[in-house]
Amino acid sequence: MPTVMTPTFNNVTEVHQPTLLAPLLDPLIAQFIQHCPGKLSALVDHYGSPLNLVWPHAFKLNAAALQGVLKHYNVAHTLFYGAKANKSQSLLAAAAAMGIGVDVSSLHELHAALRAGIPGQHLCATGPAKTTVFHQALVDVGALICVDSREEIGHLATLLASRTASRKARILLRYRPKSCPTSRFGMGADDVLGCLQQLAQERQHFHFEGFHFHLGGYGHESRVQAFGEVVAYVDAAREMGLAPVMIDIGGGLPIRYVDPQRYDSFLRNDNNPSHYYNHTVPEAFYPYGSQLTASQWLALFLESDCLPGQTIAHYLQSQNMTLALEPGRSLVDQAAISVFRVTRCKKLANDKTVIFVEGSSFSACETWFSSEYLVDPILISASAPPHTPTHAYIAGHSCLDDDVITYRLINFVTSPQAGDLLIYANTAGYQMDLLENEFHRHPLPRRITATCCTQGHYTFLPDC
Ligand SMILES: Cc1ncc(COP(=O)(O)O)c(C=O)c1O
């Protein structure tokens, strides 16, 4: 158990890295945690707990890595950052700085992306229930619209016919892959062909650009399969005189939160009811120890065949098609940490211990999806040795019985005390702010943009 002592916070500050499910950390963030726990404590004192520290440099590294793979395979490409993964404005600004687009799912995300400096033509809108005002705004800024249904294209046609402005709507059709026949998202064969006919007939309103799909899960194989299915619709569209130029494969590229071997070992040896306070092992987890990084996933995808003897990369090149991706989680890999202050450590009747933190499981929310965040927190402790090892689960400060951050009993080398900090790493992707709210009238957690200016020097600015 690596423990680093620094003299900056009270008398002694110790940074206790967990060993069972230790988070993989971006080097700059790791350095900050190890060397500046006093600064972290001062920030929490100032801004409150929990505190989300957002690190846009990590976003830029992730975008550059994916761009590198796409360039290596020499395929025309467009990245749309899935802005639903995180609400931080500084990450949209990072997308703008990297020259990539944004996938927006609401009028509010659209406005935020424009405010960050993303050009309207670099936006693409997904989601099945876009409102008329959202459609209107998308057409006005020249964004791509992923049409989810024949009903949606009907609404769009009515809207466009009623406008005096002559702007066309730029369209991708959302295909529902055969692997998910009952999904409410996208269209099967008949509806896709019906939409193509309408697009061919109503060229005064529509500019058709191609196809889109998004699948649950994180396997590249299911995307390869779906891509192969879409190829047939590209041919069908061309036969109708349309000119598709893009296939957008949505998001779902994986993140590696913990070392894959460690994760496998945890699943084999430590993931049983006795390791959970509620004696219940969740049925499903995100693959926290992914065997593949997002870049490796993308390379495998591009090297896979979509037609007999033809890889996806070759198909895209030979057909002059652009590959679009909408990564959310994988672009924000490492782009935030969430810091909770401990309020109390309480012994329970069954000889177990609960740690209460200031803040709630709405800011680290996997338990609300009947799962667990299988990444151990880092403890910043101000208590001097000797240490009393503790096994404890972690609960939020609300009166809800279900306000539990982890039912899993975490091994601490020393018992956390009031005022200590627990750091959850890598929370930018759907963890820190998906469910956040003002329950009990506690203000929303603050988010602070952290930047490393020179070696060991950081700036912290409110993210807005
Ligand atoms: C249409 C669409 N695109 C992209 C994404 C982003 O997926 P991920 O964060 O897994 O990359 C989602 C997530 O739900 C989505 O629905």
From TrEMBL:
Residues 71-261 form the Orn/DAP/Arg decarboxylase 2 N-terminal domain. The active site is at C399 (proton donor). The modification N6-(pyridoxal phosphate)lysine is found at K84. GO terms for biological process: lysine biosynthetic process via diaminopimelate. Its cofactor is pyridoxal 5'-phosphate. This is Decarboxylase. Keywords: Pyridoxal phosphate. It comes from the Bacteria. The keyword Ribosomal protein does not apply. GO terms for molecular function: diaminopimelate decarboxylase activity.
